[in-house]
Amino acid sequence: MATLTFDARIRITGVNPYVHVSAARARALKPGWRRPLPVLVRINGQPRTPWRINMMPTGNGSFYLYLHGDVRRASNTKVGDQVAVEVAFDAAYRGGPMRMPEWFRKPLAANKKATATWKQLTPSRKKEIVRYLARLKSPEARTRNIVRALAALSGTPQLSRGSR
């Protein structure tokens, strides 16, 4: 499988750090692809095992390669850094819906405002959230992320750590 390697600056849109992947580079990776593009990515050679992620189309043939916090931590990078990007098409990717973890489904269903907002999210956004939640292993991380997700979806401010 061909790996595309290039240098780029980490930028941010809203709260999402990303690297811009030009239309020409995207075509070299997977010609004619217009949907979210499943890739394996490493930044500055990290993480050791390439991270699975979807590059998101911008509408003109180029893509945003959003950089998950784990990738940025592993590569010790931040917004504004010039980085070496390695990206390859993820041929092992199997699309389709992911199952929402039961430990998130129940609290979400109990919060009507959060449920209404969830239903308005695009399928790709829901999938990315569910994919993130599915990786959480510890009960503490799950609880912490339930609180954060429900606060974000219901539009209620989260208590700061100092006021808990």
What is the CATH architecture descriptor of the largest domain?
Beta Barrel
User: What is the number of beta strands?
Assistant: 7
Helical fraction equals 25-40%
- Side by side, the strands of the main sheet go 1-7-4-5-6-3-2
CATH C-level class of the largest domain is Mainly Beta
Low-pLDDT stretches are 160-164
User: What percentage of the residues does DSSP assign to strands (E)?
Assistant: 25-35%
| Termini gap | 50 Å
Label the overall shape.
globular
Number of domains: 2
How many helices? The count is: 6
Radius of gyration: 17 Å
What's the SSE pattern? EEEHEEEHEHHHH
**CATH topology of the largest domain, which one?**
Elongation Factor Tu (Ef-tu), domain 3
Q: Classify the secondary structure makeup into a structural class.
A: alpha+beta
CATH superfamily of the largest domain: AF2212/PG0164-like
The largest sheet is:
7 strands, antiparallel
Query: What's the average pLDDT?
Result: 88
Brief characterization of the structure:
The chain is α+β, with helices and mostly antiparallel strands. It has helices at residues 23-29, 69-75, 102-110, 112-120, 123-134, 139-154; strands at 3-9, 11-13, 16-21, 37-43, 46-57, 63-66, 82-89.
